[in-house]
UniProtKB/TrEMBL annotation:
<feature type="domain" description="DUF6265">
    <location>
        <begin position="31"/>
        <end position="138"/>
    </location>
</feature>
<dbReference type="InterPro" id="IPR046232">
    <property type="entry name" value="DUF6265"/>
</dbReference>
<protein>
    <submittedName>
        <fullName>DUF6265 family protein</fullName>
    </submittedName>
</protein>
<dbReference type="Pfam" id="PF19780">
    <property type="entry name" value="DUF6265"/>
</dbReference>
């Protein structure tokens, strides 16, 4: 019995160490984000559709639905820039009127990548399983305080 406990402990430590190992800032290391994801946040239903890496980027559309109506959309990209990755997005009202000015984007520079996390400054993607992920977004409220909003997604 003692040997089983020791082997289990060693296996657990090895698995945790592999998941925490920092990976190169390459799109293929965050390709697990690709897919059609659905969840709930902001009191409504959310949908995020990520493409596979191609052409040096991944792209996504996001939609929030409240009371059977679209509240807002986002277009997002993760792209390779100067040996790192950056996540950029733009917000749109339900009628596609942009929140940011024409040439402005909301940018999230990469901090690190592991086997189960892609951590940008202000946004983190966490792989729970092949069919589930969490996205944590830092959102500043009117008082200037940062709140972390969690999006739990299931792949559809």
């Amino acid at each position: 019995m003692k040997y089983i406990v020791i082997l289990y402990f060693a296996f657990t430590l090895t698995t945790v160490a592999q998941n925490d190992l920092q990976l190169e800032p390459k799109l293929e290391n965050c390709a697990w984000i690709a897919g059609n994801w659905k969840g709930e946040a902001f009191g409504g239903q959310t949908e995020e559709n990520w493409s596979e890496p191609s052409g040096g980027s991944m792209m996504a559309t996001f939609k929030l639905i409240n009371d059977d109506k679209v509240s807002f959309y986002e277009i997002e990209i993760i792209r390779e820039v100067e040996n790192t990755l950056v996540l950029q997005l733009k917000h749109f009202d339900s009628d596609l009127k942009g929140w940011e000015t024409k040439n402005e984007t909301v940018d999230f520079p990469l901090k690190e990548i592991t086997a189960t996390k892609v951590i940008f400054e202000g946004m983190t993607f966490e792989k729970i399983s092949h069919n589930e992920m969490n996205v944590f977004v830092d959102i500043e409220n009117e008082e200037g305080d940062i709140q972390i909003v969690t999006f739990n997604y299931k792949k559809k």
